[in-house]
């Protein structure tokens, strides 16, 4: 493999150009590919492209430590407004797989098939009406209540959303990776901005460097909403790491939302102690249901893992959950260069 050139991550545009120009043989890419890049690779007669199911998740998180993210009704209403299927199919052109649970559907044994987002399958009119009703039932009010006027972009947006205690929702930054790092999450953040603005939530998508987002949300608690993603293994012990109250990121853990629910904690502890695989699966299914219900994360999508390599390379196999990229150096050590 000494004469084989790999690109480790890097920007999509730069890696695509390097592949097409023959500067590298294979791109280690943990992100999905846009349809445009797929088309470029397929048009190059010396490149192969393979697709595998992903196990990772890309998500939007709320800060549950402070208003308005501390309201489960606010989080559920926001979840209701986000039409994941529309964004995946009509905006991102099928390059991602909509996802509701915190375990990707490709991870079939552990993914709970009965978990769904708050308003899955609803029209945009029904989403708006349901989200408004969720908030009204919990005592939220508007200076001007939102109203659906007849089309996806034809909504009389709400104004002056106010919580049950009279606290008015102030402008919110939704921090997300910019288009240079991940155009899919950058695009998704703009659509979330539009969906939530219709409801009267004054959210503005704020393209932000990846490391800056990490610095802002892992440890500090002065933020409201962000979009990031996790590359995950097949065993879903990460749910406890992300949502158990003992793992609050303010104390050095991975629970960035600061989510705290004794019912979830008890299930997580029982899952960690389980010695029977089916018992562990049942407990994990319940954990997934609680997170979908309480929505400290709104899980957005999982990736289709695309691997692109020159046709002079021969892999021992290419069907691999999470793709060749996730196969590690052991798999890549078996790659042969052929003529």
Protein model, in words:
With 339 residues, the chain is α/β, with parallel strands linked by helices. It has 11 helices and 13 strands. Strands 3, 4, 5, 8, 9, 10 and 11 form a 7-stranded mixed β-sheet that branches. A two-stranded parallel sheet has the order 1-2. Helix 9 (262-273) packs antiparallel against helix 10. The relative contact order is 0.21. The model has no long low-confidence stretch (mean pLDDT 90).
Short description:
The protein has 339 residues and is an alpha/beta fold.
| Overall shape | globular
Indicate the radius of gyration in whole angstroms.
21 Å
Number of strands: 13
Task: Point out poorly predicted stretches.
Answer: none
Number of distinct helices: 11
The percentage of residues in β strands lies in: 15-25%
Largest sheet descriptor: 7 strands, mixed
Mean pLDDT: 90
The N- to C-terminal Cα distance equals 14 Å
- Protein structure class: alpha/beta
Q: What level of helicity do the residues show?
A: 25-40%
Written as H for each helix and E for each strand, in order along the chain, the element string is EHEHEEHHEHEEEHEHEHHHEEHE
